[in-house]
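Sample 1 of the test manifest.
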Amino acid sequence: MNKALRISHVGLRGIVGQGLTATHVLEFAAAFGTFLEPGRPVVLGRDPRLSGHMIREGVLASLLGCGHDVIDLGVVSTPVVQHAIQRLDAAGGIAISASHNTIDWNALRFFGPSGIYLNTAEAGELLDIYHLRRFRFAPWDQLGKLTVTTEAIDAYLDGLARVFDLPRLRPLRVVVDCCNGASALILRRMNERFGCGFILINERVDGRTVAHTPNTSASIVELQLAPLMQPLRADAGFLFDMDADRVALADELGRGVSEEMVLPLLADSLLPASPGKLIIANLSSTALLEDVAARHGGRVLRVPVGRQAAIDALSTYRPEQIALAGEGTGAVMMPQFRFVYDGIASMLAILHTICDRGQPLSRILAGYPRHHILKAEVPLTSPRIPALLEELQELFPDGELDRSDGLRIAWPDRWFHVRVSQTEPIIRVIAEQRDSEPRELFETLLDRVRRWN
Amino acid sequence: MAREHLLKVGVSGVRGVIGGFLTPGLAASFAQAFGTYVGQGPVVLGRDTRTSGPMLTHAVNCGLLAAGCEVIDLGVMPTPTIQIYVAHRKARGGIALTASHNPPEYNALKLFNHEGLFFNQYERSELLDLFHQSQFTQAGNEEIRTVKPDFTTAPALHFERVLRHVDADRIRSRRFRVALDGVNGAGSAMSVEFLSTVLATRLEAIAVDPTQVFPRIAEPRPDTLTDLAALVRRTGADIGFGQDPDGDRLAVCDENGTVLDNDDVLALAVERALAYTPGDVVVNLTTSATIDDIAARHGRRVHRTPVGEANVVDRMQAVRAAIGGEGSSGGIIFPAVHLCRDSYTAMALLLDLMAETGQTVSALVAGLPRYSRLAGKVPFEHGRLGTLMQNLEASFPDAQTNRTDGLKLLWEGRWLHIRSSNTEPLLRLAVEARTPGEAQSLFDAAWRRLTG
């Protein structure tokens, strides 16, 4: 089944023309215009997809029609939109981007004041307004005004330059695969202003074609970026999705680094300065995080998979209690950036670690305990998932149990997680073990899961 | 119970009040239906100066882009200028965002085909079906085009078309003193350029700031143009022009500060056009018999249509008319320039007539056949129209009747016409006769039967 349209707490997402239409855009943006308090402006930005032109017009019409002034940043990354919301003291914002989905997709992502994704309660309110379709439109003499600005990327770079010593990165030879996305515009400007000398590939931004699937999985890195590392004598390579909220990397030996490694690498570099703080990660992320946290006296808080759970968890803590939050997909939020998934900030933090340690990336990675992870997807056909999970739980009575998102059972040196995907009709099976592959455990799990399906 | 027409989706497009009635979603859907109908290719978009114009521009852009069209955005531009540009640019069609003479809280989508003409009745009903079926062309990422602004080339194109049909040098050489009330509309800047730069008149202009709201009732009529009349008297102007917000209608004030009857303005333009252009005249049923007398002088026929610009234009196209218009609502249609109501053509023809004859406006009007006209509005319930018409027809058995739009009763030298308004729950009554006394008694007789 081709699910070309998804309307959920995460927003509106679909294949433009096949599922996602102008009507959806106008109605969802009108719902957001009704949801937001009047008075302060709303920030808008989009990734380079051509469909962004159409969606931008629809979003503008509805927001102006609801009486909100709009500040349009043009083609930028999603983190730039979030940064601008905070900087301009806006009521909220919309990023038009399907991020790591293929080029034919697009999406609306909604942010509240200070640029944070809507939490589940707020997103639920927005969905209710959308379904009720009783939008609050302004009368003819109270309609919003549009301001178009091109300064957002520079303001965002100013923000990065306050946290990171950018000129210090100059000696590093860094290759970046922009995947024809918004990161190309930002990194080009960073090279101009700070002399970073990043070598950009797939940096043509026309919104029509992408050199490869814009996701940050290890397999894409292996295929696209890793082979260039040695020929270009690069110290590190990075790969972004279309709106640069996620990042993946490759080391100087030309090896793709699992997207799982972004979070531990950043935890290792941030925790020393914030001892004892929390790392928020999901139940499917590597146990290496616990190893790294233990090294620095930090603690890992495991939450259900998905952006929404991380956002909700964040909102229940004070910012100063948290060192880092993120997912195993290379999407990481750091407190310096008010908890925005920001691939470019993650890249800069990793480059700083390389500078600080004075070691090649491969040596830094080799210093961590080796965890072997096995992942599989089984088509979901049975409705009897609770019974399946019950059976698995009885089969492994001795581990540490977590039932907050499917079933996760952990032992000191290994863990597994079985859950139903939120986005596709599949069951995800993941098992990880220190030092060697958990082949036997993994096969047992798959066998049981398949028997129920 | 009479209701306010807050929203009307019909064969003439979409018109409604901003703030929950004419919503951005409705405008976008209608535009996407339009884009589906005209096909992928360039579509021209322009708007008048209403506050809702920018918001609706984005909505229409969205709908057109979603249908795979490219949008050429002319920004604030008079409706006739948009129409001329559509034809020149060989676009798939055009949309003007304007509620014409309606109050500022209204807006509407006016739709043009690839020739820059209003959709005819077949095109209109086809589009309406498409809209209701919601089966739109849905462009995917690769088929989505962009909005291309062109805020500058259209006015010159329009002026050039108009000037082909008048002796511009003769007009310039007269250095007329002209008063203008632009109602802060779409024509504001363009009219100043046309009158003072292109035609070298000595211009006294008010309400020519397109960033401001309409300073008067938007429909240019004698009772709404008191500021223009005062301006004419104060500056000793030879003529005064009053536009509507989208620059298609024109009202005229003579050198004494008297605002002319719009039927007389049309009559002067017809006089002027028939002297040089072969072809018949098309007007609506409510337009003065003055037109018949003038056409007769030139040996031309007058064709009568139901009220509504689209009806007049359809017939003009069919009979290859030289000129046409709708008397009371103001504005003339001169196909040699473009088959649309156009205040610029009207201004040029009148100035040309003045330059050629050397006569004042009041003297020109005095030379027209004299008729007296009266008009009134009767509130009524929709279901009663048929009964009212039958009663009226029965009380005047000696009249010739025409039932193509309401009921028109004709006698030698006088007529009366009742019809239901397209825009309000009203019955419009108009009468005309050779003398004020005759007109009044005919009006009173009809009024008694309609309200009694």
